[in-house]
Amino acid sequence: MSEPTRAYRFAVNVTPKPGILDPQGRAVERSLPHLGIAGVSAVRVGRRVELTVAAANEADARAVVDRLAAELLSNPLIEAYAVEPLGEAAPAGVAG
Amino acid sequence: MSEPTRAYRFAVNVTPKPGILDPQGRAVERSLPHLGIAGVSAVRVGRRVELTVAAANEADARAVVDRLAAELLSNPLIEAYAVEPLGEAAPAGVAG
């Protein structure tokens, strides 16, 4: 790459789609009485993936993250994802 | 509870602490060349838990989430958590 690159940090939040059974969320809900916690409901457990992308600009970086989220980090049949920009990152050792 | 309650939605983002080995993050990094994706680094895989808390006010709800995050949703030895308020929620079936 001859173009100077910057490093951008993103989070990808992956959550079970509405209506999809979420055994981990149910397990959390069932643990609550043992902790003496009441009033908590609708618990959904997903994944959060944080990563750094080296690219010429934020739009290029975002495109990489979108592809990664759709093709590798989520199962589109049962999960939804949202990309959250976390700002520019220190351009440390970027080994793709 | 005689006091009127509201419902607040939160997310708890749980991530491996810096320096802690993250096998899932490594697995993602190793998959990238197969997808033809370069320039991605520092991948960390954690959990994202979304939940609704019924409480008299947001501060009370937040206190419940903080306790839940520290005692049930994260392992403080190896994980850090951050609580993210998602706003007031529809006060649907709140069965603690």
Largest sheet of chain A: 3 strands, antiparallel
Distance between the termini of chain A: 13 Å
Mean pLDDT of chain A: 92
Q: How many DSSP-defined strands of chain A?
A: 3
Q: How would you describe the oligomerization state of the chains in this entry?
A: homodimer
List low-confidence stretches of chain A: none
Full CATH superfamily name of chain A: Phosphoribosylformylglycinamidine synthase subunit PurS
Write the element-wise H/E pattern of chain A from the N-terminal end onward.
Answer: EHEHE
| Strand portion of chain A | 35-45%
Estimate percent helicity of chain A. 25-40%
Radius of gyration of chain A: 18 Å
Domain tally of chain A: 1
Largest interface: A-B, 43 and 43 residues
